[in-house]
Specification:
alpha+beta; Rossmann fold; Topoisomerase I, domain 3; 929 residues; 24 helices
Length: 929
């Protein structure tokens, strides 16, 4: 028997079919170990020794793997073909060695780029050992992220109340967004004029020209800066005679773009399909793991985390066959196209993202896929096929026109581009960024040198320069890749972290920094400038790539980094909060105190008229306050305003056409919501909360009426005909089928969700065994370390809470119920019990004696069964010793704010951490690092 380890159960099921008897394929469900969040997990004083801890959720799976391996002849590690996949294989192998499950079995590592039968069988014929260099690169990256997050985040908490955390790549990405916003705020518009002449040939063919020179001087876009100058040129052109000085036509070839990499796929899916990078990767994961095609599961695309642009020879041959059969031989180049990339890293050797079989046309596959999957597959298919097609042939024509106005000679030009042969353009055109202009489609009439031209119209147009546009998710990914910041396969997770931390928001598909994010960047630029510099971050990425190529020692990279970074951390220990405020106030002046239209002092207090406004800090974060405090108590939010609430906070949207009642957007203690009408005879009016990401200012009457009409029927389930409903509950948008409730994922719209997507979400939830209201409540964290008994986290009517016996401790808003550890839950429970002895545990002597007796009996019982219980007991002890967990999301390792040591019952609980990195299940792809 040969045991094969992969990440996801969907992949395991498919590969098991391909390999047949003699193989047992088991899923690890992604990572099985991580760094515990406590001092010493990465110890610089012990040459960066790393302490790994098995995920409690993975313990059972690892035991199953160990049992299977003990009875096997060979262990085959078949995780993903990248650094992260290599690391998962290494972790599994290390755990099996610790469990002493390996006793002479052969250990092999295989990789495949596509989940097809041929790819799997070919991979099994070419095993290798684990790539130590790739593992070293992974270890270096994890250590760096841990050291930055675990040491820098506490500095933020002490010096910048209200800040959440800081990460190595996350902070630099945030700086890009904030720098762009600063450019927009400080931008000063400049006036300029364009002068155009509409001319006609003797055959009355009209065309447009523009002024490019006058009296021997070149005129550029910004050369004409006033209306008076423009009027002078117009007057000259009105009296001028025009002739063709010369016409030049140049043939131009436009070549197709290479197949997709992770980064270019995210950019193009955002531009053309409107998909967020994280959503793009989720859909691509499903296409990679496979869909049911007539009873057999087949992967439709190759691995979707890659920096390579090349394709396998057999894939190129199949693509060329598809081009020849569908478009004809004219669209097929004489030789196959070969693409290369300049970057040198471990993933360059991987293939580009392509269809596993180009013969599977998107129209044929659409019936097996939901709408989003079909659109993304079509995008990948067309880009891949177009990359091997013939170049487009264009003709670019330039006509130079001379205008004589008395003693003056004015120069005009006209350009046109005509497609002579569309080539790959017949199938695919790359999406355009804001700054790109489409130059095709303009055709000039036939004309010859010295031919006279007739004037038809002279126009002058006033323009003003515009600030650079805010980043979209696609353009930010592109910019990060250009600068060499981070790795493309982690960009989606980095952007998700910035939004989850509320450092940025997405408004009209543009990223805008929140005040919280601007404060963090300003703090880092003031006191940790080197570590948010683009060049420094890119240089560190280059070193990590060199580690993966076995060119440099990974621990030496850590030593060099830690020496300077540790010194920078120490330098902030004596930093006073007043120094921090002064630095931030100066750096954020353009944002906090923009110039007023009337020219008055923007820092003058509007209440007392004498005080000066400046940045202040409270335990809840930053705000603007008056220097005359406490005599003057004027305050305003950091983002501006007059410091006073506007009315009662309600905004009318219009009237419901059916009831005639007014629909309003309101803000309550739990956030924004919609309301229909007013309360009548103690009967509450109909209300609806707003979906996450929908700002109150963006709600219109049409959207409000749809939300108030929820839940809506999506359609009938194909299995039993029962209705599937979509609505918004206390935990957010959901779909319901009978007793199964499934939360919507990011990118799903509760108002437009289709039946195919709803059925898929229901099926995924049912396969996890957690569907239905009758499912066991709560997530078990472990046993109470002193009193015994299960400690769980549950969802309650008033929010999540920790439970132990009859003690229920509400989780503070700053604590993530999915990330809370056993130790933190026990702290909250004990604090609640101490504060409420009547409801909690009584502290009488009798109770103490009983507890002592029970503990003694338990200890004795434990001793008698020590041999059997040792592993389980050790695991519990390890969990009980956990500190604040390190978070990993994308490239960032961040830490959770430690619980206060004193007055645990009255002080606030630990600050909220972001969700942990998703495991590699069939509905949660394994984001790298």
């Amino acid at each position: 028997m040969q045991v094969v380890i992969v990440e996801s159960p969907a992949k395991a099921k498919t590969i098991n079919k391909y390999l047949g008897p003699g193989y047992e394929v088991i899923a690890s469900y992604g990572h099985v170990r991580d760094l515990p969040s406590k001092d010493g997990s990465v110890d610089p004083n012990a040459d960066f020794h790393m302490l790994w801890e098995v995920d409690p959720k993975a313990q059972k799976r690892l035991n199953e793997i160990a049992t299977a391996v003990k009875a096997a002849d060979t262990l085959i590690l078949a995780t993903d073909p990248d650094r992260e996949g290599e690391a998962i294989s290494w972790h599994v192998l290390e755990v099996l060695r610790q469990k002493k499950a390996l006793k002479g079995q052969k250990v092999e590592r295989v990789v495949f780029n596509a989940i097809t039968k041929q790819a799997i069988l070919d991979a099994m014929k070419a095993p290798r050992a684990i790539d130590v260099a790739l593992v070293d690169a992974y270890l270096a990256r994890r250590a760096l992220d841990y050291l930055v997050g675990f040491n820098l985040s506490p500095v933020l908490w002490r010096k910048l109340p209200g800040a959440r955390s800081a990460g190595r790549v996350q902070s630099v990405a945030l700086r890009l967004v904030c720098d762009r916003e600063r450019e927009i705020e400080t931008f000063v518009a400049r006036e300029y004029w364009s002068i155009a002449a509409r001319l006609a040939t003797p055959r009355s063919d009209e065309f447009e020209t523009r002024l490019v020179g006058a009296d021997g001087k070149k005129i550029t876009r910004l050369s004409v800066g006033s209306g008076e100058e423009a009027a002078g040129f117009r007057a000259a052109l009105e009296t001028a005679s025009f002739r063709v000085r010369g016409v030049e036509a140049k043939p131009v070839k436009r070549h197709p773009q290479p197949p997709f990499t992770t980064s270019t796929l995210q950019q193009e899916a955002s531009r053309k399909l409107g998909l967020a990078p994280a959503r793009t990767m989720q859909i691509a994961q499903r296409l990679y793991e496979g869909v049911d095609l007539g009873g057999e599961t087949q992967g439709l695309i190759t691995y979707m985390r890659t920096d390579g642009v090349d394709m396998a020879p057999e894939a190129i041959a199949a693509t060329r066959n598809a081009i020849s059969s569908k478009f004809g031989p004219r669209y097929l180049p004489g030789v196959p196209r070969k693409y290369t990339v300049k970057a040198k890293n471990a993933q360059e050797a991987h293939e580009a993202i392509r269809p596993t079989d180009p013969a599977r046309h998107p129209r044929e596959m659409a019936r097996y896929l939901d709408a989003e999957q079909a659109r993304l597959y079509e995008l990948i298919w067309t880009r891949t096929v177009a990359s091997q097609m013939e170049s487009a042939l264009l003709e670019r024509t330039t006509a130079d026109i001379e205008a004589k106005a008395g003693e003056r000679t004015l120069d005009l030009t006209a350009t046109g581009t005509v497609v002579k042969f569309d080539g790959f353009l017949t199938l695919y055109r790359e999406g355009k960024d804001d700054e790109d202009e489409d130059e095709e489609g303009r055709r000039l009439p036939a004309m010859s040198a010295d031919e006279p031209l007739d004037k038809r119209e002279i126009t002058t147009t006033q323009h003003f320069t515009e600030p650079p546009p805010r980043f979209s998710e696609a353009s930010l990914v592109k910019r990060m890749e250009e600068l060499g910041i981070g790795r493309p396969s982690t960009y989606a997770a980095v952007l998700a972290v910035l939004r989850d931390r509320e450092y940025v928001k997405l408004e009209k598909k543009r990223l805008m920094p929140e005040d919280k994010g601007r404060l963090v960047v300003a703090f880092l630029e003031s006191f940790f400038q080197r570590y948010v510099q683009y060049d420094f971050t890119a240089d560190l990425e280059e070193k990590l790539d060199k580690i993966s190529a076995a060119e440099i020692d990974w621990k030496q990279v850590l030593r060099d980094f830690w020496q300077d970074f540790h010194a920078a951390i120490d330098a902030t220990k004596e930093l006073r909060v007043s120094e921090v405020l002064d630095a931030l106030d100066e750096l954020l002046t353009a944002h906090i105190f923009p110039p007023k239209e009337d020219g008055s002092d923007p820092r003058l207090c509007p209440t007392c008229g004498a005080g000066r406004l400046s940045l202040k800090m409270s335990r809840y974060g930053a705000f603007i306050g008056c220097s005359n405090y406490p005599e003057c108590r004027y305050t305003q939010p950091l983002s501006g305003g007059d410091g006073k609430p506007e009315g009662d906070g309600n905004r009318p949207l219009g009237k419901d056409p059916e009831t005639g009642e007014e629909v309003t957007v309101r803000v309550g203690r739990f956030g924004a919501y919609l309301q229909l009408g007013e309360a009548k005879d103690k009967e509450k009016p109909k209300r609806s909360s707003l979906p996450k990401g929908l700002a109150p200012a963006d709600v219109d009457l049409e959207t409000a009426l749809k939300l108030l009409a929820l839940p809506r029927e999506v359609g009938a389930h194909p299995d039993d005909g029962a209705p599937i409903l979509a609505g918004i509950g206390r935990y957010g948008p959901y779909v319901q089928h009978g007793r199964i409730y499934a939360n919507l994922e990011e990118g799903d719209d509760v108002l437009t969700l289709g039946l195919n997507r709803a059925v898929a979400l229901i099926a995924e939830k049912a396969s996890k065994g957690r569907g239905g209201r009758g499912a066991p409540a709560g997530r078990e964290l472990g046993e109470h370390p002193t009193l015994g008994g299960s400690v769980t986290v549950r969802a309650g009517r008033f929010g999540p809470y920790a439970n132990h016996g009859k003690i229920n401790a509400t989780l503070p808003k700053t604590v993530d119920p999915e990330a809370i550890t056993l130790e933190e839950a026990v702290q909250l429970i004990d604090a609640k019990a101490a504060a409420s002895p009547a409801k909690g545990r009584k502290t009488t002597k009798a109770t103490t004696k009983t507890t002592t007796k029970t503990t003694t009996k338990k200890t004795a019982a434990t001793k008698t069964t020590k041999a059997k219980a040792a592993p389980k007991k050790a695991t519990r002890a390890k969990v009980a010793e956990e500190g604040a967990p390190v978070e990993e999301s994308g490239d960032e390792a961040e830490v959770k704010k430690p619980a206060p040591r004193k007055r645990a019952a009255t002080r606030k609980a630990p600050a909220k951490a972001a969700p942990q990195e998703p495991a590699a299940t069939d509905d949660a792809p394994p984001w790298e690092e």
